[in-house]
Amino acid sequence: MAGRGPAPAQAHTRKSNDHQTIKLIADKKLRGPSLPKLMTKAGAVEAWHPQTVKWWNHWRRSPQAIRMMTGPDWDFLLDTALMHHEMWKNRKWELAAEIRLRVQKFGATPEDRSRLRVEVGTGMPDNSSTAQDSSPVASLDEQRWKRIAGED
Q1: Is residue 44 a contact partner of residue 86, using CB atoms and an 8 Å limit?
Q2: DSSP SS3 for 6
Q3: CA 41 to CA 28: how far, in whole Å?
Q4: For the residues 50-57, what does the mean pLDDT come to?
Q5: Measured CA angle at 131 (ends 127, 132), to 5 deg
Q6: Which residues pair with 39 in a beta bridge?
Q7: 124-137 pLDDT, tens per residue?
Q8: Taking the chain, what is the end-to-end CA distance rounded to the nearest angstrom?
Q9: CA of residue 14 relative to chain centroid, distance
Q10: How far apart are CA 26 and CA 41, in angstroms?
Q11: Distance (Å, rounded) from C-alpha 60 to C-alpha 67?
Q12: Long-range CB contacts for residues 68-76, cutoff 8 Å, separation at least 24
């Protein structure tokens, strides 16, 4: 099975092997280019598959898009979008493995982000809620937010 092995350990025995984790916070800003016109071999304009449009816009709004600063980053993702479109339009599920390998470079899954040493947050929780939940889950969520924000 293709891939890069297990995610790296969180702590090492030698301090020189410890690496900093990059923390990205989602701000919902739209980054990167829109999908270009898609042309058929005959030269006609074709609509992108709706799943690909949705997928592309998710990437454009993702915290990972903050790190995609160069044209080649977006070009690589556009090549992947073409595969994604082909997979959905023509039901070529064999392209899914290549797409998975490509999006892992951008941190598509929690495991990929761990390997890249990237943490993703969605911003601070909304404290304007009138409901007071005293469950232990709420306190764990608060602890996670504090850790993400660097308050602990």
Answers
A1: no
A2: coil
A3: 36
A4: 96
A5: 80
A6: 45
A7: 555 444 444 444 44
A8: 39
A9: 30
A10: 38
A11: 11
A12: 68/31, 68/32, 68/106, 74/32, 74/33, 76/102, 76/105
* 56 CB-contact burial (10 Å; exposed 0-12 / middle 13-18 / buried 19+): buried
- Domain assignment present for residue 92? The answer is yes
The dihedrals phi and psi of 22, each to the nearest 5 degrees, come to: -90, 130
| Whole-Å CA distances, 111 to 44, 107, 144, 147, 151 | 40, 8, 18, 19, 24
> How many domains, in total, are found in the chain?
1
Domain that holds residue 64: 33-123+136-149
Phi and psi, residue 110, nearest 5° = -55, -40
Q: Quick check: 80 and 102 in contact, CB under 8 A?
A: yes
Nearest partner of 31 among 54, 56, 9, judged by Cα: 56
Residue 116 falls within a domain, yes or no?
A: yes
pTM of the model: 0.67
